[in-house]
Amino acid sequence: MERDKLQALVAEKDALSVYFEALLREAPPELDIETVTSPVVAPVAAPRRSEGRPAWGDETFQALLFKVNGLTLAVPLVELSGVQEWEEGKVTPLPGHVPWYLGLMQYRERNVPVVDTAQLVMPEDRQANIRPWQERLRHVVFIADGTWGLACDELAEVVTLRPDEVRWRTSRTRRRWLAGTVIEHMCALLDPPVFADVLASGIEDMPESGAQDEGEQQ
Fold first, then answer.
1. Is the pTM of this model over 0.70?
2. pLDDT tens digits, residue range 104-135?
3. What secondary structure does DSSP assign to the chain, as a single string?
4. What is the per-residue pLDDT across 186-211, written as a single tens digit (0 to 9) for each?
């Protein structure tokens, strides 16, 4: 019985690894610059080491796990500005924006743009499986000093991670906001300053011409 459970767990982690490999290799859709406007200034990305690992990843750190359409994401607490319950009536839609841009929400006495995280991070071949945001959004995770809100379906738990537990990405020619993966918790680790920078610039990071698949390190 124990052996069967162990084999099932290994198979689940292997399947997750394949999923993340597809996530990294797939070229993300280009964002429409003209339809993405924001009243905030793009934050400066945190200092990072040459291999692409953020400075906060050099030592043991804590991260909040949250879910978007079944996918678990992790945001380091040092880069987390706060969390707020989703209230549809408190989000002001803005006409002419792309579908993932949900509108503005009051947070710390200012209007903060809120995005549907699932539509931004899910691979293209899984976009059709994303349920309407009206049916699933429950919380908003604020990053970059509260200048961006990432709407999510569910808050999970806070975990403590060692650097060697993360499969850090060695280069970021595509999906620069993805710092790495944590197989133990079956989640993708976000780099919030880079995510905010990508959102504020209005341009998804497309792969460089002729770029090879990106590597990861243990």
1. yes
2. 999 999 999 999 999 999 988 888 899 999 99
3. -HHHHHHHHHHHHHHHHHHHHHHHHSPPPPP-GGG---SSPPPPPPPB-TTS-BGGGGS-EEEEEEEETTEEEEEEGGGEEEEEE--GGGEE--TT--TTEEEEEEETTEEEEEEEHHHHHS-GGGGGGPPPHHHH--EEEEETTTTEEEEESEEEEEEEE-GGGSEEES--SS-TTEEEEEGGGTEEEE-HHHHHHHHHHT---PPPTTPPPPPEE-
4. 999 999 999 999 998 874 443 332 33
